[in-house]
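Reviewer 2 asked us to include a model.

Predict the structure of this chain.
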Amino acid sequence: MAQGSTLFEAAAEYWRDAAQRGVLFMETLNERGNTYVAQSAKTAPHVLNFPVEILRDGRTLERPANYALVRIVPPNDVTIDPMKPPIVVVDPRAGHGPGIGGMKPESEIGVALRAGHPVYFIGFLPKPEPGQTIEDVCRAEGTFIEDVAQRHAEAEGKPIVIANCQAGWQTMMMAAIRPDLTGPIILAGSPLSYWAGVRGKNPMRYLGGLLGGTWLTELSGDLGAGIFDGAHLVANFESLNPANTYWTKPYNVYSKVDTERERFLDFETWRGNPVLLNAGEMQWIADNLFVGNKLSSGQIRTSGASASICATSNRQSSCSAPGVMTSLRPSRRSTGFSTSTTTSTRSSPGDKRSSIRCIPLSATSVFSYRARWRRKSTTSSSPAWR
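Predicted model (structure tokens):
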């Protein structure tokens, strides 16, 4: 009888705990919805955790783009060394809003500030400019980085660029168009070859073939009257691992609702506020990158010049753009090339333009890499980074 009473009490305690967790979980989801409404009402929603000063609005450029350059205002307890090269963090426009590079003190922006570097951020607005193209965005980014370089003309090096996810291939295109602008480029989680990856994993990789190409992308743009909703891209990310989307992630919040709630809401504030793209932009991405894989095969072209980036496994290969070369190593864990790489610029013989060389590098070790490069450069005849 005592054992039965114990089992009954345990069952009652279990259901009481489950009910309480259920209420707290639903409250968390409700707050996520309220956050979405509040973020959607803002002109420039973002999740940056640092004050900023707006320097350049991309909508005022000759070829307008919905991007902007801002200076990160350092905290009072941080000392900035004006001789150190500035760092520019570029956030991904892959469906979600800007700010992930500076969402917390322990972030790319936070680490760069503590290292004494002037820091800048390139973000974007929720709605694209009419007629805006991918090339317009790349050229706007080049203009922003040029502005940063001019503000720090006396610094010991060219601007260091940290590009996250989608911003990685966008920055590599910019660097191919304007190879003279930047110092090292760190690509964090940026696939550059869309046919690479682990065979049999991430089922979204195979849908392009199973569904017959990119006609669904074009249909979505037509249904949106020339606008592609970034929510489709976020849904594609979630579809990479449906088990995590529909079970693991929500159950993790439910089971740890006392401690996991804040982290979940912070992340969803960023991921849960999708932005818009012009249908032409998304169609270009689908045709030239997702299906065409033209970035790594050296077939990307711009209206004014060649902007190709050739990639081969474990070797360097010449590209059609004068003086542009890349060497990318396939990643063991992602659907593209190495998810953390850096590029350095160096002059090719007889050519004042730069070449681009990619080597694996941890995103948090750029500062030690810069120091190693400076020591090496004192004994090298290469005119790189000067």
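The two ends are 85 Å apart (CA to CA). Residues 66 and 225 are 19 Å apart (CA to CA). We have added this to the supplementary material.
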